[in-house]
Design a protein that fits this description.
The complex is a heterodimer of chains A (about 325) and B (about 500).
Chain A: H1 2-6, H2 8-26, H3 33-58, H4 66-83, H5 91-114, H6 119-138, H7 148-155, E1 157-162, E2 168-172, H8 174-191, H9 193-203, H10 205-211, H11 215-241, H12 252-262, H13 274-293, H14 300-323
Chain B: E1 3-12, E2 15-25, E3 30-34, H1 41-48, E4 56-61, E5 64-66, H2 71-76, E6 79-82, H3 94-105, H4 113-126, H5 142-155, E7 160-164, H6 172-187, E8 191-195, H7 199-205, E9 208-213, E10 216-222, H8 228-236, E11 257-264, E12 268-275, E13 280-284, H9 291-298, E14 306-311, E15 314-316, H10 321-326, E16 329-332, H11 336-340, H12 347-352, H13 368-381, H14 398-410, E17 416-420, H15 428-443, E18 447-451, H16 455-461, E19 464-469, E20 472-478, H17 484-494
Parallel strand pairs in B: 3-8, 3-9, 6-7, 7-8, 13-18, 13-19, 16-17, 17-18
Antiparallel strand pairs in B: 1-2, 1-4, 4-5, 9-10, 11-12, 11-14, 14-15, 19-20
Classes of the chains: A mainly alpha (about 325), B alpha/beta (about 500).
């Protein structure tokens, strides 16, 4: 029991609960199914990104190119599918975007592992280059009519609850995509040799090499996975807002990194869990949306995200210091 | 023979590092490999473990003869090297650190946690120690980390374990525990190759000793035939006789530094002593006795909470490093690599990093020609061997690096020099040179405080020795008849 209380995830869960109670107290509309479902829906895209980012951070790296990769993947996919008047299932958009995202992620991995460059610089560069390339050669216009399967995906709901005023609140199935990926990632990180290799590599790269891990394989996996998940998150994002806008998701990397760090991951690598990350995402989404609910102007969101990032980093650093 | 190296030669970029070296180790033998820094010890170890391929010669291991031994052959032949940094994962548990290797080498896709825990606890049982398997390795003491590293080596069916300076960061008690593990391994037929700088340990634990100098083996034989003097002679090529330092401390004068009831909560308390010009005052005590903290507080790094400090009889406040430097107090840290030097920066920059103010003109521009000429003067004065003072400090040997730190602080015109473990990890020859320099500095009227573990070093260089225990000074030893055993007795009575 004492151990549970000390666990980072438990503390995060308490913060989440306390925060929800506070907001619910100020604004009773908070606990309505409509609001809860919408909060869950808005955590899906962030959550999928965060899982990829967590893996990169666990390996001791950092990736700030994924929002650019995500936009690149979904915009090209949608543009192509609209051009060929695609009528098939949602599967192909996902496969295409994941493939594009993964390929871009492997470019990061190649540059980082082959030339031993700093991940921050590499991903800063590739992210910027990919954004520029997209706008110069593919287009800058918003595509308003998505393939029908993507629209259908955004309408796929469960738990349809009738509200007193007669409207219906429903939960998007996309939340299951997020939770499914989270469970898969948690299993992967805990029970596969490659998953443990990511932790080992983040803890001490030289020691990982001596134990017999292949550092190139590990880096290809984490950056490739971050890219692939960015592609998938892009399709979900584009479906949910029912358009493909190449100017979306700019500056999103800060929020994602903030939520992963808030979830207890250490930026020096080797420390962090999927559960913590999921809770971190929920807390950040809750903070952002409740600022609106309690009547704080939306411009303040950026200030709050910045403050959360710094507070979370300070808290992790402080805990580590006390630990030592 | 378990392993036999025959006529090994190895060179790098035209420089011969190993010249015709032959070494064979029998099963269950504890062998000590001694030699100064740069004598080729580490190259030899890398050849044993297959990291380097020799230019000439052959290696016989496990009944096979290799011309080029690969790392995987060495591991299969039972050669395990415990590196100085242990090569462990601080962020993973003890169990995983121990067993991950086995899981990887079995080529498993999925990790079997239950099997990992069993493997881990069995390997610890084998050497008769118990460490909580669920603890993170980063939270363990250095001694426990080392035990984990040894246990991990055993999991690879180790037949020869190479330990590179295994006792550097251990307390006396922990060294004892390590030695009993080594003896247990010997009984199990495992050979140990032990690399150390510490004379006492070499003589205590090893059965045979191999001494290297300039890339060749100069002496080899049963340990009984050697004593500290003989080992030093073979390592350095000449005999070193350190005579005791006869201090020139002047009685009656106002002490350069007087400390009264200095205290820092939870670390040390009631520390009082005085320090006179020309004196070398030793401070020792077991690890964790508060001596490092005391040294840091005198330099203002972690100021004391209570008590008073007098400099030349006047009370002063030492609340920061700047305060200490303004009072001409200098500090040479224990870990020169992380605390004392900018490793990637040039030797010149390191020499002057504390004194750049002196070389700037009114506009704040550095006078490079003066710096250059003073630098070459300092290199000469402190016998720092380098072809070019623009080379990074990293390119110097340990002894030379330590002298750079010393030279830097002497250039601040320090009157009080606080040294914390000045010869940790420095080989015999350089150690002797550093001691010579310290005495010279003391004779010039500087007061030196020498914080050290090395009892021989304290006895031969200090006028008086303060022994600390649990944050207090418990006794003061001194006099020409003082022996190493007197301090050991004093420490033993305390613990």
């Amino acid at each position: 029991m004492g151990k549970l209380l000390k666990r980072n995830e438990f503390i995060l869960f308490c913060i989440l609960l306390l925060f929800a109670c506070f907001v619910g107290f100020v604004n009773t509309g908070f606990w309505s199914p409509l609001n809860i479902f919408s909060l869950l829906k808005s955590s899906v895209v962030m959550g999928i990104f965060a899982i990829g980012t967590l893996m990169v951070i666990l390996s001791g790296g950092i990736d700030i190119s994924f929002p650019a990769f995500s936009v690149f993947s979904f915009y090209i996919t949608v543009k192509y599918l609209v051009a060929i008047k695609y009528q098939g299932t949602i599967l192909l958009p996902f496969v295409l975007a994941v493939f594009i995202g993964m390929s871009l992620g492997l470019v990061n991995a190649f540059l980082i592992s082959k030339f031993r460059l700093a991940p921050l610089i590499v991903t800063l560069g590739t992210g910027s280059a990919v954004t520029g390339f997209l706008r110069a050669f593919v287009g800058t216009g918003i595509i308003p009519n998505l393939p029908s399967s993507m629209v259908a995906f955004s309408r796929m709901n469960i738990l349809n609850t009738a509200l007193p005023d007669g409207s219906i609140a429903s939960l998007s199935v996309s939340i299951f995509l997020f939770l499914g990926l989270a469970v898969g990632a948690a299993f992967f990180l805990k029970y596969t040799t490659l998953g443990r290799g990511i932790y080992a590599f983040g803890g001490d790269p030289v020691a990982a090499l001596r134990v017999g891990f292949n550092p190139i394989k590990i880096q290809c996996f984490v950056y490739g996975m971050a890219g692939a998940l960015a592609g998938a998150a892009g399709i979900v994002h584009s479906s949910l807002i029912r358009q493909a806008n190449p100017r979306d998701l700019e500056g999103f990397e800060m929020e994602i990194i903030a939520s992963v760090v808030l979830g207890g991951a250490s930026l020096t690598g080797g420390k962090g869990t999927v559960l913590g990350t999921v809770l971190g995402v929920f807390i950040l989404v809750l903070i952002k949306s409740s600022l609106i609910l309690v009547g704080i102007p939306s411009d303040w969101q950026k200030v709050v995200v910045g403050a959360v990032l710094i507070t979370a980093t300070v808290a992790t650093a402080y805990r580590m210091k006390r630990h030592a | 023979m378990l392993i036999a190296l025959k006529n090994i030669c190895k060179g790098f970029a035209g420089v011969e590092v190993l010249k015709n070296v032959s070494l064979s180790i029998a099963s269950g033998e504890i062998r000590c490999l001694a030699g100064e820094n740069g004598c080729g010890k580490s190259t030899l170890i890398k050849i044993l473990s297959g990291v380097y391929t020799p230019d000439a010669g052959s290696i016989a291991l496990g009944g096979r003869e290799y011309r080029a031994l690969r790392p995987i052959d060495a591991i299969r032949g039972g050669v395990q090297v415990i590196y100085q940094d242990f090569s462990l994962f601080p962020n993973l548990t003890v169990a995983e650190n121990l067993a991950l290797n086995t899981q990887v080498s079995k080529g498993k896709t999925f990790v079997d946690w239950k099997e990992m825990r069993t493997t881990a606890s069995e390997s610890l049982e084998e050497i008769g120690v118990s460490i909580d398997l669920k603890k993170l390795v980063g939270d363990l003491s250095v001694a426990d980390k080392q035990i984990v590293a040894i246990a991990r080596a055993l999991l690879h069916n180790a037949r020869l374990i190479v330990m590179d300076e295994p006792t550097t960061a251990l307390t006396q008690k922990e060294v004892g525990a390590l030695f009993s593990i080594i003896k247990k391994l010997k009984e199990a037929g495992i050979s140990i190759l032990f690399v150390s700088h510490k004379m006492r340990e070499m003589l205590d634990i090893s059965e045979k000793i191999t001494i290297m100098r300039n890339g060749a083996i100069v002496s080899e034989g049963e340990i009984e035939k050697y004593d500290a003097r003989a080992i030093t002679y073979h390592m350095t090529g000449h005999s070193i006789d350190e005579v005791r330092f006869e201090g020139a401390a002047t009685e009656g004068d106002v002490p350069l530094l007087r400390v009264e009831k200095l205290g820092k909560s939870g670390v040390f308390k009631d520390i009082s002593f005085s320090l006179r010009a020309g004196e070398i005052l030793g401070v020792t005590g077991l690890l964790g006795c508060g001596r490092t903290e005391l040294a840091l507080s005198l330099f203002g790094r972690e100021p004391a909470d209570t008590g008073r400090i007098f400099r030349d009889g006047k009370e002063v406040v030492v609340g920061s490093v700047q305060d200490a430097m303004a009072r001409n107090i200098a500090y040479v840290p224990e870990d020169r690599l992380t605390e004392g030097l900018f490793l990637a920066q040039s030797i010149t920059r390191n020499l002057f990093s504390a004194t750049y103010d002196r070389f700037t003109n009114a506009a704040g521009i550095l006078d490079t020609s003066t710096i250059r000429s003073e630098a070459s003067e300092m290199l000469r004065g402190f016998d720092i061997a380098t072809p070019n003072s623009n080379n990074p400090v990293r390119s110097l040997s340990g002894g030379n690096q330590q002298r750079v730190v010393l030279a830097r602080w002497m250039s601040t015109k320090a009157c009080i020099l606080v040294l914390n473990g000045p010869t940790v990890g420095v080989d015999v020859g350089s150690k002797f040179e550093i001691h010579k320099k310290l005495r010279e500095i003391a004779r010039s009227g500087v007061a030196i405080m020498l914080f050290s573990d090395d009892l021989q070093e304290l006895i031969s260089n200090c006028n008086r020795i303060l022994v600390m225990h649990k944050g207090s000074i418990v006794c003061e030893l001194g006099g020409a008849s003082l022996q190493e055993n007197d301090i050991i007795d004093c420490l033993r009575r305390l613990s």
